[in-house]
Amino acid sequence: MSAAMRNSHSIPRSPQRQRGAVLYVALIMLILLALIGVVGLQVSGLQERMSANYRNANLAFQVAELKARQTEAIIETALSGGTGTFTSNQEYCAPIFDPLTWADGVNSENAVYTRRIDKCFAASSLKVGAKQNEETGNIYEISALSTDETGNSTASAVINTIFIP
Fold first, then answer.
1. DSSP per position, 97-121
2. pTM higher than 0.90
3. Phi, psi angle pair for 14, to nearest 5°
4. End-to-end distance of the chain based on CA atoms, in angstroms?
5. Closest residue by Cα to residue 116 from 135, 91, 143
6. Which of the 8 DSSP states describes residue 94?
7. Is the CB of residue 137 less than 8 Å from the CB of residue 127?
8. Are 68 and 161 in contact (CB under 8 A)?
């Protein structure tokens, strides 16, 4: 037998002896890549929703803080100039005020509630005796409620601050 004939019999060239293992491996790899792609889409969608929630909550907080600061400016202006008095929503200690209960009962998307709390305890201030209406120093509790968007809100925030003019 010649060398050429031996080499031709050692390499299987017949289609009957090929089993297609490469095809199975390639299909399994494609399935794995598709699964990784689907998981990646789900993770990125979840991260997008989380960042949108964070944005909405932060926006609601910032607007509530803006409303509280605007109310502080109104109180400051009313006491230092203008009328010299500021009438809050609640001038006396009773009934007890809870900002979260108040916020749950408010129908508006932006609301502010002021309560004068200086008469609830013995207080002193530099303004004591300056004007008759400021005999105890004018200390205010300001609660502000706000949402992230007007009409289509997904987050809300309540801020409760103490303001001493």
1. --HHHHHHH--SSSEEEEEE-GGGS
2. no
3. -80, 135
4. 113
5. 91
6. P
7. yes
8. yes
Enter the tokens of residue 5: 């004939």
- Length of the chain as a residue count: 165
C-beta of residue 135 within 8 angstroms of C-beta of residue 37: no
Please identify which residue in the block is written with the tokens 């989380």.
50
Q: Which amino acid is at 42?
A: Q
CA-based nearest residue to 162, from 145, 136, 148, 144: 144
Edge-to-edge order in the sheet of strand 140-147: 111-116, 140-147, 156-163
Residue 5 or 35, more confident: 35
Residues 93-140: tens digit of each pLDDT: 888 888 888 888 888 888 999 999 887 876 555 554 455 444 557 889
- Which helix H or strand E contains 141, and what residues bound it? strand 140-147
Single-letter residue type at 101: T
Q: Which structure tokens are listed for 118?
A: 């200086």
Distance of CA 81 to the CA centre of its chain: 37
